């Protein structure tokens, strides 16, 4: 039996996780002149989630990253939502004023990854443990990977998802179950689906479903439903065939158009997951960084999907953290904890609000079709929600600082060596 030889890697900035938050943060830091290494546990880019909808706040972040035009050229704007009460058949139309575009998750990840150097992502690199050491007065994060590789970094940004190892190391409490689960998938119609370009939602006493037009041949669909934490169900709902079968059994009251979409699912895109969230006061009261280590994306603020802000807020995180790190580095020629302090201070209240509002939105919209809830939802909540969502989706995360001039870069590089 051969002896495993440990490898040691030294980097200035290491990002744990190659999802939306991780790749966007790597690109944002590249834009300000800082090289990163992304550690991705999977053997390729992750595409779980099938598709997502992006609002103006996300597009402002993508503008800052310099890639928005590559996506807007592919995906048209959704103009409105058509909300159907499954029990009564009543339909309410809500205008979006052109604020939403759906994108394939895989396309977004590919677009971000293509802007990075070829050696920026290290695949099959699963984080096992973290240790923080002092070296000549500076903090050095020591990451041990499951293959025995040791990675030493001056800054670590955990973008490793809902069950983040980095968040756990920081002392953040584990995310809690929201009481719901979600199934997502993409349905393909080779001859065209013939539907208008809009979002359709279906509200039932037990669940809430949605259809989003991606293009002339593809539809993104989702169903969220009440679901208690269940270890057995978690294990069973791994087979796409079983996921599709369960969905068809549970949407018999839905209009035929929705059933047909589920039947046309590309099984490779089907996913099931419990909807988790981080308790908002945990974000407000906890330390979101320790010296040179912090978190972003779902690792910081897992939330339910009811405001459509999971991917959007992750893109915001990327620009904000790169702005703080870049500005500090440009002023001081080194990395410092004040940059992470500024980043977490700027983000904690906004993401806590998004988690709270998203959970409230999902609870109200999934509370059945009784006359009181219907009245409250249609006459009160949607009016309030329109104001709230406007403020959420039109947020501006700011711009990135320009990279240093060549002479300044050389001086900073010498300081770091």
From TrEMBL:
Domain of life (superkingdom): Eukaryota
Chain segments annotated as transmembrane: none
Pfam families: FAD_binding_3 (PF01494)
UniProt cross-references to SUPFAM superfamilies, sorted A to Z: FAD/NAD(P)-binding domain
FAD-binding domain residues: 12-355
Gene Ontology MF, one: FAD binding
Keywords (A to Z) from UniProt: Monooxygenase, Oxidoreductase
InterPro entries associated with the record: FAD-bd, FAD/NAD-bd_sf, MOase
Family named by the database record: Belongs to the 3-hydroxybenzoate 6-hydroxylase family.
Stated name of the protein: FAD-binding domain-containing protein
């Amino acid at each position: 039996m051969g002896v495993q030889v440990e490898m040691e890697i030294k980097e200035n900035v290491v990002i744990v996780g190659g999802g939306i938050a991780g790749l966007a943060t790597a690109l944002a830091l590249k834009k300000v002149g800082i090289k990163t290494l992304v550690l991705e546990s999977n053997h390729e880019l992750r595409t779980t989630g099938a598709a997502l909808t992006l609002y103006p706040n996300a597009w402002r972040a993508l503008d800052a990253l310099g890639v928005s035009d590559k996506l807007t050229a592919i995906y048209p704007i959704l103009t409105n939502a058509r909300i159907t009460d499954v029990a009564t058949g009543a339909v309410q139309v809500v205008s979006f004023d052109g604020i939403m575009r759906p994108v394939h998750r895989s396309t977004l990840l590919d677009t971000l990854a293509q802007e990075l150097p070829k050696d920026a992502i290290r695949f099959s690199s699963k984080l096992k443990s973290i240790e923080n050491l002092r070296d000549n007065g500076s903090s050095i994060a020591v990451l041990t990977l499951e293959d025995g590789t040791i990675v030493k970094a001056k800054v670590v940004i955990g973008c490793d998802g809902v069950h983040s190892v980095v968040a756990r190391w920081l002392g953040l409490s584990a995310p809690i179950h929201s009481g719901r689960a979600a199934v997502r998938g993409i349905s393909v119609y080779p001859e065209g689906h013939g539907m208008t370009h809009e979002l359709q939602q279906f509200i039932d006493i037990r669940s809430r479903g949605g259809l989003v037009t991606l293009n002339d041949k593809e539809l993104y669909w989702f169903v969220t439903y009440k679901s208690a934490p269940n270890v057995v169900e978690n294990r069973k709902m791994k087979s796409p065939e079983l996921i599709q079968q369960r969905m068809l059994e549970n949407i018999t009251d839905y209009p035929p158009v929705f059933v047909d979409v589920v039947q046309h699912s590309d099984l490779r895109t089907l996913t099931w997951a419990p909807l988790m969230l981080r308790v908002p006061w945990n974000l407000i009261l906890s330390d979101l960084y320790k010296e040179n280590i912090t978190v972003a994306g779902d690792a910081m603020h897992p939330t339910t999907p009811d405001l459509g802000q999971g991917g959007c807020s992750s893109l915001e995180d990327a620009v904000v953290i790169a702005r703080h790190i870049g500005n500090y580095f440009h002023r001081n020629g080194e990395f410092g904890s004040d940059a992470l302090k500024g980043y977490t201070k700027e983000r904690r209240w906004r993401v806590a609000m998004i988690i709270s509002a998203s959970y409230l939105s999902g609870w109200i919209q999934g509370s059945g079709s009784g006359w009181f809830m219907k009245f409250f939802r249609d006459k009160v909540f949607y009016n309030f929600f329109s104001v709230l969502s406007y403020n959420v989706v039109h947020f501006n995360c700011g711009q990135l600082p320009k990279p240093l001039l060549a002479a300044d870069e050389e001086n900073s590089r010498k300081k770091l060596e």
